[in-house]
Amino acid sequence: MAQVAAPLAFLLIWSSGFLVGRDASNHADPFWFLALRFVCVSLLFALAAWVARVPWPRGARRIALHLLAGALMSGLYLGPGWWAMSQGLAAGVMALVGALQPLFTALISVLLLRQRLPARAWAGQVLGFGGVALVLWPRLAASAGTPLAPAVVLVAIGAIVALTVGSMVQKHPLAAGDLRSVSCVQNLGAVSVLVLMALVFGEPRWDNSPLLWGYLAYAVLLLSVGGATLLIWLMRHGEATRTAALLLIVPPLTALQSWAILGETLVPLQVLGFALTIVGVALVRRA
């Protein structure tokens, strides 16, 4: 039951993050928003670990790996990704770049970890990415004339590489430990990176509106405590390539949520893309 419910819950929570992040940056500096978010998350997990009296990671090497995983999966993924969008990178382009993450995971698994992926898995990767491209095509076409510095695109790609490497670290050297204490340490790794980014690139912008605090609460409780914890659980209980393939469904699901909640347009081409993405993910997960 958990093997079915956990991926579905993860997808619903994770895809909503694009809607929150898109508007939260209008009310606060993204780096400081993210830094405060992960400080709150670390404190919540520390409290949960203390109440339950669970064991904490021990040894300098293991603690360093947990800090590294958090810095990569949260700090160096979300920080640069939000920065790239603040510099003019369209959300649709960022989502399309993010759809490369399952392919990056597959390449690392094959080239570095010497795993073998069947042809069905590769076909699913290509079909899924093509489906995402169709879903995002209207947004990509709308932003085609916007001039963009190559460095911004490279930063966005680097953010996805960071998420990929962090996920691999999470899966292999760190596939054990209580999620409460582990998540506390890993989120501290994210905080260290994001505070540094905020000091270098951020600005003192926080409008203190109830909406902003609502976004922060949602990001802490749903996106991090819920979504990120589910992602770690899925990485531990499944192959990295199969878990990463789920992320292909995030952009199409975000488009559906934007249509249902925000009233954005959804054309037949996007529906076709969603269907192709689901077929592609199914091929990868059954390979």
TrEMBL record:
GO terms for cellular component: membrane. It is found in: Membrane. Signal peptide: none annotated. Pfam families: EamA. Keywords: Membrane, Transmembrane, Transmembrane helix. The keyword S-adenosyl-L-methionine does not apply. The keyword Transmembrane helix applies. Belongs to the EamA transporter family. This is EamA family transporter.
